[in-house]
Amino acid sequence: MIRRLSTTDPGFLATLDALLHFDGSTDNAIEQTVAEILKRVRAEGDVAALEYTRRFDQLNVNSMAELELPRSQLRHALDSLPSAQRSALEAAAQRVTSYHERQKLESWSFTEADGTRLGQKITPLDRVGLYVPGGKAAYPSSVLMNALPAKVAGVGELIMVVPTPRGEKNALVLAAACLVGVDRVFTIGGAQAVAALAYGTQTIPQVDKIVGPGNAYVAAAKRRVFGTVGIDMVAGPSEVLIIADAAANPDWVAIDLFAQAEHDELAQSILLSPDAGFIARVAASIEKLLPTMPRREVITASLNGRGALIQVTDLDEACALANRIAPEHLELAVADPAPLVEKIRHAGAIFLGHYTSESLGDYCAGPNHVLPTSRSARFSSPLGVYDFQKRTSLIEVSQAGAQTLGPIAATLAHGEGLTAHARAAELRIKSRLP
Question: Does the annotation mark 369 as catalytic?
Fold first, then answer.
């Protein structure tokens, strides 16, 4: 059911590149629909947002105010959770917060010998919008991973939007929002929610940045509003790449492949191993364990469509391929992962050792699970506190410094034909305020 390849196969790299290819472009119908929604919400505010919410989510509401959940409802969701769920949510939140506290950037400056001071001021964003999938596809872990870094960064206000089709609310999502201190929650989703956050309406305030996953309409809307507001990323299907040696447990590896494949039919699960016998054991584990999976149809489609078990010559070649693939999640299911880590340049997150399942990172290990996909780990990073902080340069030039920097700036400005730039520097040379 899952293709088996070898790096010695003729045309292997072309086959691999074809397997990795994912067309993230949105079809014209979606683009046209999203463009119209954004245009109307920008122009009409609450009226358009409410109309689309009634139409798409089948909610019988008469005003946007009805879509804002009171704090008491969030608190009730948290207080009503079974004790095991609440304890797990609190433990995960504590670990995610603790990890992200270490990412917080601080302002800095230094003074040169002539008294010129240079530096950088770090400030948090004022207001951030958090998009959370709702209804049956609800992810409280997304609330933790998107909201907590923003809170650690010191963001002033966090606005959460979550669709509730036909009024279906997920208690865990609302409980998570209460636990992490989301300021306002609106039961609105889709492109209309992105538009409301990006442009602001009479009820929903405009934000500075929008983060969080969504469907194709949400992704298309985020692309279009980028520039008006910031966005985290436009994520593709989830991915895992596992590098395993012969000592790995084939059942564990098979389940880890399933863990990505069960997201959706376009998710990608790939195994690299130098041991043909181990690959055969993993294939047998897949056949054995698949019937026990509630989402086996999705897993089957994913493994058939984009999965692979690949035999490599050695672990060095596995690392070279990993850098080519630049996966969202990289598991090093080997006895001694440390030497391999040094050889990995491109991965969203690296999971070291046999006991480190990717699912622990999804929920509670501490690092963020919002990761670059579709090979964007070559140039992008996990979501973190730094995504919610701005850096502002500080420049304070002394009188003595102006004598040194002025001629340099003037010479370059004259070279660019910008006379006023040059004169602004020259006027401060050999001259001072009265």
Answer: no
